[in-house]
Specification:
Length: about 475
Amino acid sequence: MGLKLFNTLSRSLEAFAPLDPQGQHVGLYCCGPTVYDYAHIGNFRTFVFADLVRRFLEFKGYTVRHVMNVTDVDDKIIAKVRAQNGSLRQYTEPFEKAFFEDFTVLGCLRPHDLPHATGNIDSMIHLIGRLLERGLAYRAADGSVYFSIDNYRKAGAQYGRLVKLNFEQMRPGERIRSDEYEKDAVADFALWKARVPEDGEVFWPSPWGDGRPGWHIECSAMSMQLLGASFDLHLGGEDLAFPHHEDEIAQSEGSGLQQPGQRFVKYWLHGAHLLVEGKKMAKSLGNFYTLRDLLARGFVGREIRYLLLSAHYRESFNFTLEGLQGARTALARIDECLDKLKTCAGTAPAPPEPGFITRFTEALDNDLNISAGWAVVFDWIREKNRQLTDQAMTPSAAAAALAAWQKINNVLGIVSADLADAPREIIALADERQAARKARDFKRADALRASIKTQGWLVEDTPQGYKLKCER
Ligand code: AMP
Ligand code: ZN
């Protein structure tokens, strides 16, 4: 069985086949963070989910280009900048830095492209211009530009692909300026927002006067620019399906840049929410934990990642501190078994044990059924423990088991226990060093190694990535 994914477009499981005629390259876009505050672990559930999708596709041999945008201008950010009297960048920079530190602590692979909204205003202006030319957008009296849902539908397109909408409730011509709105407020949405005094210094020039882009156009412009007008996978949390993703489809397909018969996105995947006592974990409800809150309570990144990865991505689940204790116990079982296997294994390399990999692949092929994947892992741990106790494990069998684990863990991304103890700053530096090495900037890589060393840590490179050892 090959990989099947639940596509929100068809509301059904579909066999995954990339658009690439060679079946090799896969374009993946996940809506990234709005850097107006620290992200909470509900947000990170969605990013860990995207990381899983990418890792599993890579495990299956695809070459993935993973794009995640950084929303560094929007209504919420502008409100904060105004309250603090600083510049936009001064406000967003520390939150962005914190976000990527957390991202690393949670074992998420850095996306290949991280386009920033503020760095791509030109391509948004270009796209808005195209929508105007095609009669799908119009200028309002204040200079703002809106998307015309009515004209889009009159042109034969369907608005309401990801969610069912009631057009009876829609009053043509009614407009929404705000980036976030409810389903019952189907109305023309802003592509370009004319500058208002409250925007302060946050504005860009455009053919329609000073202003700033709406949130939705950002993702359409940046995803198409980097992945092409049609690409394979678009991910996000379920709350983004409407209006954000619906509007992305309207803008992108309204641009007419796709080849005939092609859509903007082939598969839309939406991750369910992380809940607290049955309610969505959200800043606005005040029921959230940031990663930092949990680290301060003595938990480590791998435990939080494990918990966020424990349930199927389309199932919501309640976050509890007991759940995190459970994650700790589960990881200790894995660590203990791996330690014993390492002691038993010979030094000779062995090919990975195949059965484990086959069973795990089958579980995840079924719409990334990670809970079934964990069941395979723990059955395997039980079997290995039994063989170890019965003295039925040969060094080469232990080496083959470890090699299989290595492959599986490329998907799970559970960092080894020694790395988990390293402080976030050190991991961030080591990550930067790895990126510098990849970019063949060895001077910078060496400088980073030296800086890590002065802080008491030694970085070692292995075929599976780097390792950190505490020297103190
Ligand atoms: P934001 O930074 O608010 O734009 O959100 C970033 C991502 O987090 C989006 O994909 C949201 O859908 C997702 N998200 C927000 N709250 C939750 C939650 N409680 N559980 C899972 N994902 C969430
Ligand atoms: Zn988006």
